[in-house]
């Protein structure tokens, strides 16, 4: 088992900036979209990275871990977290229970974490994690819960937690902890994962929700292309034309549009097309969700 310094590929004298930079770079490597054939492996690596980052960016925890590492490198991680679990079990408050949930998530005990989390939720109907955990614990707990729900194929629950995180991170600088990772997870979920299992009408809402994310031109063009396909399948040709027009305006050389252009008899330069696109564009904008909300069902 690698120690935390080896895991983050840093020296034992690394400063907080070096730790943060390494964490951000390595988190990108283990993103599920880059490891589609090794999703479970990538998820475990991500949990370990978060675990290492939490310990090494906390002065007290890092000092304690370093002492254990010097005495017994092979058992340092196990001993460190065993001590923390004991402390968490002795705290019966809501915050203590949620910290134990986080501990289970960090130590690859996802089923135990979800069971305990649901118990806490059942006793606290309006449970707000941010009121019981400090900011770092709150963000890690939300992210790892979302990941665990995703692994359990409970996509609505995963989506709700990723969205809650994203709304919190909107208020922070772009390079904030987990900012890029959460945005990427939401983008993949809203544009690929969820639409594949949904009907065309529900898919439209997922794509529209995805447009609220911070996107590149290519990503936005891809979403409008998928909207065009969904609207065409629903028989809403004017909206399909408007969406396809937006996609090609953003990325003129967009691939995979030949079939839908033929189906729509698409000619963006014709006067009739321009009138249809203006009307449909207004309709599309009116149907966009308010920032921070979505029309999909979550729980």
Description:
With 299 residues, the chain is an all-alpha fold. It folds into three domains: 1-90, Helix Hairpins (Orthogonal Bundle), CATH 1.10.287.110; 91-197, Serine Threonine Protein Phosphatase 5, Tetratricopeptide repeat; 206-286, no CATH class. Helix content is 69%, strand content 0%. Helix 2 (16-29) packs antiparallel against helix 3 and helix 3 (39-56) runs antiparallel to helix 8. The model is unreliable at 290-295 (pLDDT under 50).
Which features characterize this protein?
3 domains; Serine Threonine Protein Phosphatase 5, Tetratricopeptide repeat; Helix Hairpins; 299 residues; 15 helices; mainly alpha
Largest sheet: none
Radius of gyration: 23 Å
CATH topology of the largest domain: Serine Threonine Protein Phosphatase 5, Tetratricopeptide repeat
Query: End-to-end distance, in Å?
Result: 37 Å
Spans where pLDDT lies below 50 across 5 or more residues:
290-295
């Amino acid at each position: 088992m690698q120690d935390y310094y080896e895991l983050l590929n840093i020296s034992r004298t690394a400063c907080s900036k070096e730790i943060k930079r390494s964490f951000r770079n390595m988190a990108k490597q283990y993103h599920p979209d880059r490891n589609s054939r090794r999703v479970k492996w990538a998820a475990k690596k991500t949990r370990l990275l978060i675990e290492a980052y939490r310990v090494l960016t906390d002065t007290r925890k890092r000092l304690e871990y370093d002492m254990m590492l010097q005495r017994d490198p092979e058992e340092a991680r196990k001993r460190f977290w065993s001590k923390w679990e004991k402390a968490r079990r002795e705290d019966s408050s809501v915050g203590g229970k949620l910290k134990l949930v986080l501990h289970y998530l960090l130590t690859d005990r996802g089923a135990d974490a979800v069971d305990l989390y649901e118990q806490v939720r059942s006793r606290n109907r309006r449970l707000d994690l941010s009121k019981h955990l400090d900011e770092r614990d709150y963000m890690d707990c939300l992210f790892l819960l979302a990941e665990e729900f995703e692994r359990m194929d409970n996509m609505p629950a995963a989506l709700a937690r990723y969205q809650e995180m994203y709304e919190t991170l909107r208020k922070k600088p772009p390079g904030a902890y987990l900012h890029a990772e959460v945005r990427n997870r939401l983008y993949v979920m809203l544009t690929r994962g969820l639409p594949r299992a949904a009907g065309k009408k529900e898919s439209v809402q997922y794509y529209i929700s995805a447009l609220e994310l911070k996107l590149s031109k290519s990503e936005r063009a891809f979403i409008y292309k998928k909207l065009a396909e969904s609207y065409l399948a629903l028989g809403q040709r004017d909206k399909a034309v408007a969406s396809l027009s937006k996609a090609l305006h953003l990325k003129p050389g967009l691939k995979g549009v030949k079939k839908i252009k033929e189906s729509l008899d698409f000619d963006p330069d014709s006067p009739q097309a321009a009138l249809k696109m203006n009307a449909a564009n207004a309709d599309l904008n009116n149907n966009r969700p308010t920032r921070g909300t979505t029309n999909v069902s979550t729980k």
